[in-house]
Every structure is written in C-alpha cells, then in structure tokens.
Amino acid sequence: MLATTQATTETIARLNDRARQGLDRTARIVITANLLAQISDGTFPGDVVAQARVMKAARECTFTSSSPERDFSSFEIDGVQACLKIDYYDLCLEFGSDDPADASVTRRVITIMAREDY
Fold first, then answer.
1. Residue 41's CB: how many other CB atoms inside 10 A?
2. pTM of the complete model
3. Do residues 110 and 26 lie in contact, with contact meaning Cβ atoms separated by under 8 Å?
4. Cα Rg of the chain, angstroms
C-alpha cells in the first residue's frame, strides 16, 4: 500500500510539473491582481512583462519536502514574496477532483499570488 501511495504522489507531482511548465493545455493559470500590481509599472506593456517574469519564476521555483506533490512553493519575484498553489478540480471546474493522479478527470488551477494574498 505504501508503494501505491508513493507512486500516486509522484504521478501527481509529475502532472503538476507539466502544468507549471505550460505543457498541460487544460490547466488554468491565475496571477492575482495584487501580485501583478506590485511588480508592474501599471501599463499594458508593463503588465505583459510582469506576467512573463511571474511565469518564469513559477517554472523555476523549487519545492520543499513538505510539498511532495509539488503543489505549493514560496519564492521571490523582483523583491516581492510570492507563492504558487495548485488546486485540483473536476473537468467543469465546479468541484474538487476525485483523483488528482488521473489527468483525464482533473483540471489543475495554478494560482500565483503575493504572500499576503494566501
């Protein structure tokens, strides 16, 4: 039973990594307005550049052993403390997923936020 749990955890971690890297077309990525406001100059081009910096940081963030599924991380972007959280939903994004290890029944939502938004 322990091996199954470890295998499930690693499957979820691998799926989370794919979503974070932009390889899961069904995943949704949300950047909070507060985080964006803190690292952008408020112009449209500034917002686009800020979003790119956020995505780069999310793709390169590291995870501690307290997050074996690699679904939560804290990191810094331009001096702003940020965090990333991955949640698991059903295909309609209405309810929690019954099986986050099964990509065919799970949609991942990645929220990247300022630490105070958490």
1. 10
2. 0.91
3. no
4. 15
Q: Exposed, middle or buried, 93 (CB in 10 Å: 0-12/13-18/19+)?
A: exposed
Indicate the pLDDT class of residue 1, thresholds 50, 70 and 90.
very low
* Residues of the domain holding 102: 2-117
CA dihedral of 96, 27, 21, 101, whole degrees rounded to 10: 40
Average of per-residue pLDDT across 89-111 = 97
CA pair distance 25, 18, nearest whole angstrom: 10
Q: Report the domain count for the chain.
A: 1
14 sits in which H/E element: helix 2-20
Q: Report the length, in residues, of the chain.
A: 118
Per-residue pLDDT band for 4 (boundaries 50, 70, 90) equals low
% residues pLDDT > 90 (the chain): 95
Cα–Cα dist 115/73, whole Å: 10
